[in-house]
Amino acid sequence: MPRRVWAILAVAFGVSLSVLDGTIANVALPTIAAQLDISSANSIWIVNAYQLAIMVTLLSFSALGDVIGYRKVYLGGLALFTVASIGCALSTSLGTLVAARIGQGFGSAAITSVNTSLIRTIYPRAKLGRGMGINATVVAVSSVAGPTIAAGILSLATWPWLFAVNIPMGIIAGILSRRFLPANPVRVRGRRFEWRDGAMNALTFGLLIASVEGFSHGLDARLIAAGVAATLIVGFLFVRGQLHKPFPILPFDLLRIPIFSVSVLTSICSFIAQMLAMVSLPFYLQRSLGYDAVSTGLLLTAWPAVIMVVAPLAGILIERIHAGLLGGAGLAVMAAGLLLLAFLPGIPHDFDIVWRLVLCGLGFGLFQSPNNSILIASAPPERSGSASGMLATARLLGQTTGAALVAMLFHLATDDSAHIALLIAAGFAAAGSAVSFYRIRLPLPAGLNRRR
To answer: Among candidates 69, 58, 67, which has minimal Cα distance to 111?
Structure first.
């Protein structure tokens, strides 16, 4: 048990670094833009470069973990992330900062691609949900802490320190990981990583995200059409090649497992709903209801704060309650919370908003740990890396789609876009709930069966 605690702490350090850097730079964008003398539009690349680098390499790193071991990929990701953070802190131009952020994105992709695989090796099957609950809590805490930490650092120092703080954390995470993470054996001897498949995977997802972003931001229709055509052609060639591979980077072998594919679909629905709400709510609260930025931030903290409490409890509950039932009930509660947010009173009290946000956080917390446990446990042990990568890819696809839908709504329905976004979010959460309840009919993976 003591070694397990140190091992999960090592994973928590790495995951928190990855999540923090996905949000910590957002607060500083105006400051960075002013000091580097760049436009606000160009400063967005500091965020987009990081996210895009993660998206195009995530599945490749997870497949690499199945080949050479999850511990090696995780340690390599930590090292790359830490070195890239040094590059970010020393950057003096947009070009060097974006290049360093791409390096950070690659390191983050390596970390997040295998972190749940490592949890599977750290925890026995019967207690896997507890590990997933702790992981969900770390993600929630890091999401809450990102803007606060950024504001604190900027009040005392310049923006490069936002990235410099990663250096000691990365070193500590590396030391803990080398000492305490289990060395999982490579289970399939003679298997190699296909670099050509990795390049095709990166190109497919890169074109897909670029096309979605272009459409949501109203780029020239001809450019969007060319991007969509390129995505379809490259994607078709990539998928056709993957269908005949025994260990594909895009894990079709796992997607043929009914409960795995249903869990991936449920996860995508949940993160679309979450991102639709998280992006639209600040506009709704400030433009429609008259709250200032500080009050909005404090109110929205209620959502992830509840997840911090509920996710570990849900991880324990799946040892006694069917994970599909927990997940379905959680997303139903989340859908109710989103629907109630969409129909707030004209002049709401703070409590009117907070208890609805608490419902959303409660529902998402009940869903996340059981869903992640099913998804990881349903894959064969030698494919844990690919399952972990698919879990992270589902999250990123859902978040990207949700953000793009909000941007599109802002173009199409400016006056009522935030309200419409909340209604659509409730619809996606309800759809995810229905899909999750369907899993009750499917056999659960070993170790997740309910105790009688």
So the answer is: 58
Confirm if 358 and 302 have CB atoms less than 8 A apart: yes
What residue type is 51 in one-letter code? Q
Q: Rounded distance, CA 135 to CA 129, Å? A: 10
For the residues of 184-248, what is the DSSP string, one character each? ----STT----HHHHHHHHHHHHHHHHHHHHHHTT--HHHHHHHHHHHHHHHHHHHHHHTT-SS-
Q: Cα–Cα distance between 448 and 127 in angstroms, integer?
A: 9
Cα gap 120→389, rounded to integer Å: 13
Indicate the burial class of 118 (C-beta count within 10 angstroms; 0-12, 13-18, 19 or more): buried
- 3-state secondary structure string across 412-429: HCCCCHHHHHHHHHHHHH
Yes or no: say if 115 and 15 are a contact pair by the CB < 8 Å rule.
yes
Per residue in 267-292, pLDDT tens?
999 989 988 888 788 778 877 788 77
Task: Compute the distance between CA of residue 289 and CA of residue 346 in angstroms, rounded to an integer.
Answer: 8
The predicted model scores a pTM of: 0.78
Q: What is the pLDDT of residues 331-354, one digit of tens each?
A: 999 999 999 998 888 788 888 889
Residue 142 CA to residue 351 CA, distance in Å, equals: 25
Angle, alpha carbons 350-355-358 (nearest 5°): 125
Kindly tell me the burial class for residue 124, based on how many C-beta atoms sit within 10 Å of its own C-beta (0-12, 13-18, 19 or more): exposed
CB-based contacts of 134: which residues, under 8 Å, 6+ apart?
8, 12, 312, 315
